[in-house]
Write a structure and sequence with these properties.
Blueprint lengths: L10 E6 L6 H12 L2 E4 L18 H6 L2 E2 L12 H17 L4 E5 L2 H9 L9 H14 L1 H11 L1 H6 L5 H14 L3 H8 L7 E7 L3 H17 L2 H10 L14 H8 L5 H24 L5 E3 L5 H13 L6
Parallel strand pairs: 1-4, 1-5, 2-3, 2-4, 5-6
Helix pairs in contact: 3-4, 5-6, 5-8, 6-8, 10-13, 11-12, 12-13
């Protein structure tokens, strides 16, 4: 075993990648072998009662390895990246004090970024600028705003989906208020907080294999009773207008129960939207140069040894 290296910063292995790549399974296997506890980085698994549709760790998974930052709030309670950062850092500090290996696992890139790099502090915005942009979007359509963003801040435009009107307006309001692209502020922030030593491992696979796994996963969720889960949520008073109930999969089940779409169409949309979501995750994570990518042909034995060495160089195993 390598010699101890004193460090005053916690170490964390981060397993990330698109949905359906097997992050959770691999994390549990490695955590069982090397010890430690898992911090979830999934923006939907924080909600109680939403289990099947979020692919939340099962009770058996949680008996094998302790999981944190799941089942935190009910679907009608607000939750955001800033709160995740606060709770996540508190958890990391506690695990570090207890000399537990720390595993961060999930596919919500924003949560991982805010946990490991902190929150981007934006400049003061004139509320009238925001209202004008919203009015312009309503009158002319979001495509017009996206085209303008491409002209004034091409870097941000590349990061955003053309239909992501909320973030398009956010980027434009910063530029219109300050004359400086939001990408510039983010770039400055990138060199700020670095509270942890991290080893980022990204799981990837060919698009054909991933999309086939996604379709199989949707079918499995349905077999496990996803529709019944949504029925119970609605019976508990969690209506379809709530943000979590408008998320991937839940939205289609709500629409089916409300007789807005048929069953076959609901399933088709779930599979299509999950493929699109995986593609957006891929784009986000691929922009991070720190990630070591591993596909289905990777030497997992070698990667396991690298993870073990990471802990030995200064983590709890040293």
């Amino acid at each position: 075993m390598a010699a101890k290296v004193k460090t005053d910063r916690p170490r964390a292995v981060i397993l990330l990648g698109p949905t359906g790549t097997g992050k959770s399974r691999l994390a549990i296997e490695w955590a069982e072998e090397l010890g430690g506890e898992i911090i979830g980085a999934d923006s939907m698994q924080v909600y109680r009662y939403m289990d099947i549709g979020t692919a939340k760790p099962t009770s058996d998974d949680q008996r094998r390895v302790r999981h944190h930052l799941i089942d935190l709030v009910t679907p009608d309670q607000p939750f955001h990246a800033a709160l995740y950062r606060t709770l996540g850092r508190k958890t990391i500090d506690q695990l570090f004090q207890n000399r537990k290996p720390i595993w961060v696992v999930g596919g919500t890139g924003l949560y991982i970024k805010t946990l490991t790099q902190g929150l981007f502090s934006s400049p003061r915005i004139d509320p009238r600028v925001r209202e004008n942009l919203r009015g312009e979007a309503k009158e002319k359509g979001g495509a017009v705003l996206y085209d303008r963003l491409r002209e004034v801040d091409s870097q941000s435009a590349l990061r955003l989906h053309p239909n992501d009107l909320f973030r398009i307006i956010r980027a434009l309001e910063v530029f219109d208020s300050t004359g400086v692209p939001i990408s510039f502020y983010r770039e400055q922030h990138r060199f700020g907080e670095r509270p942890y030593v991290t080893l980022k491992i990204g799981l990837e696979m060919s698009r054909d294999i991933l999309y086939r796994r996604i379709e199989e996963r949707v079918d499995q969720m349905i077999e496990k009773g996803f529709l019944g889960e949504v029925e119970r949520l609605m019976a508990m008073g969690y209506g379809g207008e709530l943000k979590p109930m408008q998320s991937l999969g839940y939205k289609q089940m709500v629409q089916f129960l409300s007789k807005e779409i048929g069953w076959d169409e609901a399933v088709r949309q779930m599979k299509r939207d999950t493929r699109h979501y995986a593609k957006r995750q891929w784009t986000w994570f691929k922009a991070d140069p720190e990630v070591q990518w591993c596909d289905e042909s990777a030497d997992w034995g070698k990667m396991f040894l690298e993870v073990r060495s990471f802990w030995e160089r200064g983590g709890p195993m040293a």
